[in-house]
Amino acid sequence: MMIPTKDAYDELDRAYAHFNAELFNGQLPPCLITLQREKKTYGYFSAERFFNQGDKSTTDEIALNPAYFGIIPLKEVMQTVVHEMVHLWQHHFGKPGRRRYHNREWGDKMKAVGLMPSDTGKPGGKQTGERMADYPIEGGAFEQALEKLLATSFKITWADQRPGRHVPAELLQAALEGAVDGVDPENIQAPELTEPAPSKQTRAKYSCACETKINVWAKPGLHLICGECSQRFQEVE
């Protein structure tokens, strides 16, 4: 029997456990993985975000954006998982930068697990900063660990078929055009184009039929009287 919630979270838990063993020597504590549609964000880490209502213990959150699952290669989804796991590692065993700053310690750990930090996501980018991406180091620890995971027929079963406004337009377009390896454009629905709402009329023209031919502009639906002929103005369409 298909159980979508169990499928989705079991797969993510499995990926976390695998990379924890392969890249962090199993030292990372369990965390709560959530799915969050944060606009143009692959994922994020939030330290001690949840608490147990029974014993008051806390756990960290790794949030992943499911809007990307169906439009980027599985490898990039797993990069996001490991990227956030490095934040979790630093929270427990290092010294995180202030607020969202990705410091040198974080960057060094990223390289140790096989991901090169880069603010552009490409070679040559800055390795520290507020908003950081990464790319796999060829033949590095991440690629080796990912190869082992994929050899077990690992996959992400459920993906968002209407990612729409939650992802960059150029990324969505590339997926729809079949330009992304491993992505089937037939599984993705293009966002519907909606007509802009007609502008609401704020002023109307009123004319009087007397000899002076007086015209005035005012709020629609008024009953105006001409001071010259004492006749009502007529609202002109």
TrEMBL record:
Keywords annotated in UniProt: Hydrolase, Metalloprotease, Protease
Highest taxon in the source lineage: Bacteria
Ranges of residues in domain SprT-like: 14-115
Signal peptide: none
Transmembrane parts of this sequence: none
Keyword Protease: yes
Protease listed as a keyword: yes
Coiled-coil portions: none
A GO molecular-function descriptor: metallopeptidase activity
Protein's GO biological process: proteolysis; response to stress
InterPro entries named among the record's database cross-references: SprT-like_domain
Name of protein: SprT family zinc-dependent metalloprotease
Organism: Pseudomonas veronii
